[in-house]
Amino acid sequence: MRSKTKSGGGRLLAACLLASLFAVGCDRGDHPEQIGKVAHQFVVKDSDRTVDLSKLRGKVVVLNFWASWCAPCLEELPSLEALQRTLPQVTVLAVSTDEDTTAYKNFLLQHHVNLLTVQDAAQTSNPLYGTYRYPETYIIDKNGMIRRKYIGPQDFMSKEIVDSLKRLSQ
Questions:
Q1: Which of 159, 155, 168, 140 is nearest to 34 (CA)?
Q2: Who's near 65: CB < 8 A, 6+ residues apart?
Q3: 8 A C-beta contact, residue 53 and residue 114
Q4: What is the CATH number of domain 32-168?
Q5: Helix orientation angle between 159-168 and 71-86, rounded to the nearest 10 degrees
Q6: In whole numbers, what is the pLDDT of the chain averaged over residues?
Q7: Where are the domains of the chain?
Q8: What percent of the chain stands above pLDDT 70?
Q9: How far is CA 88 from CA 38, 61, 119, 133, 166, in A?
Q10: First and final CA of the chain: distance in angstroms?
Q11: Are strands 136-140 and 60-66 parallel, antiparallel or unpaired?
């Protein structure tokens, strides 16, 4: 009888641990808490440019957090560039969290990146959004409200995403 109690207690403990893991990872789901809230403003300056998110108010912004060492980030890069070409009224802002400036610049050159991108080596912008795993992308409407969050690599040229961005930018 004693072994049954221990076994039952072990299952209860495992279930509690599993439930707490789900609660901690909640904001990575389909409907994170940030949806419908004002996007956190930030200014990031690297050796080439300064980007102030508040200066993009009035435009739809696709805010993408990425890193040069991130294979899924590389996977979605062509669709982000195609999106920027297809919808010039939408601003794709790609914030690199690379600490190594050489790696960041080499990546941009090697992959011929043609997007508004800035290196946030100090990683001051991504924590505002709770983003530490890449890629993560936020759709911010003209009024500065977060309308969507994408986790992991996406095809930003999918009909659903393009149609949604067109509606937001009207």
A1: 140
A2: 95, 97, 125, 126, 129, 131, 134, 135, 136, 137
A3: no
A4: 3.40.30.10
A5: 50
A6: 87
A7: 1-30, 32-168
A8: 81
A9: 23, 11, 22, 28, 11
A10: 68
A11: antiparallel
